[in-house]
Amino acid sequence: MDRAAAPRSDGGLAAALDDIRRSERASCVTAWVTLPERPGEYADFPSWLDPRIVEVLRARGIERLYRHQAEALEAVRDGRDVVVVTPTASGKTLCYNLPVLQATVSDPATRSLYLFPTKALAQDQMDEVHDFVTALGLDLKTFTYDGDTPPAARRAVRAAGHIVVTNPDMLHTGILPHHTKWVKLFENLSYVVIDEIHNYRGVFGSHVANVIRRLHRIAEFYGSRPVFICCSATIANPLELASTLTGRKMVLVDKNGAPSGPRHFIFYNPPVVNRELGIRRSAVLEASRLAQTFLRRGVPTIVFARSRVTTEVLLSYIKEALGEPAGREPEGRPSRVRGYRGGYLPSQRREIERGLRDGSVQGVVSTNALELGIDIGTLEAAVITGYPGTVASTWQQAGRVGRRTGESAACLVATSAPLDQFIVTNPEYFLGKSPEHGLIDPDNPQIRSLHLKCAAFELPFVDGEHFGDEERTPTSRLLGRLEAAGFVRHVGGRWHWSADAFPAESVSLRSADADNFVIIDTTDPQPRVIGEVDRFSAPMLIHEGAIYLHEGRQYHVDRLDWEEQKAYCHEVDSDYYTDANLAVEVKVLSVELGPGGPPEDARRVPGPARTRTAEGGLPRYLGEVSVTAVPTIYKKIKFHTHENIGWGRVNLPEQTLHTEAVWFTLPPDVTSGLASEEVQAGLVGLGTLMANVAPLFLMCDSRDIRAFTEVRSPFTRLPTVYLYDRYPGGIGLARRLYGLSAEVFRAAVRLVEACACSEGCPSCVGPAAEVGPAKPATARFLEAALREDETP
Amino acid sequence: MNRPLPSPDAPEGRAGACDPAAAGTVPSLQEVLPGRRLETPAGPCYHVRWEHPLCFRYGAAPLLEALAVSGRTLAVLGRDESLEEVTLARACFIDTETTGLAGGTGTYVFLVGVGWFEGDLFVVDQYFMEDYDREPSLIAALEENLRRFEAVVSFNGKAFDLPLLETRFILARRPPPLRAQPHLDLLAAARRLWGLRLESCSLQTLERAVLGETRAGDIPGRLVPQHYFRYLRNRDPRVLKPVFEHNRRDVLSLLSLACRAARRFESFLEDPPGEDGVHPLDLYSLARLYRAHGLGEAAVRCYRACLDSLPSGPLADRAGLECVRLLRRLGRAPEAAALSRELADARPPRLWALVELAKDLEHRLKDYRGALEVVDRAVGLAEGLRLPETGVTLEALAHRRDRLQRRLRRAERRALRPDPAPPESGPAFSP
Question: Can you list the pairs that B101-104 forms with residues at least 24 positions away whose Cβ atoms lie under 8 Å?
Answer without folding.
Answer: B101/A500, B101/B222, B102/A500, B102/A501, B102/A502, B102/A505, B103/A178, B103/A502, B103/B160, B103/B163, B103/B164, B103/B167, B104/A177, B104/A178, B104/A457, B104/A502, B104/B167
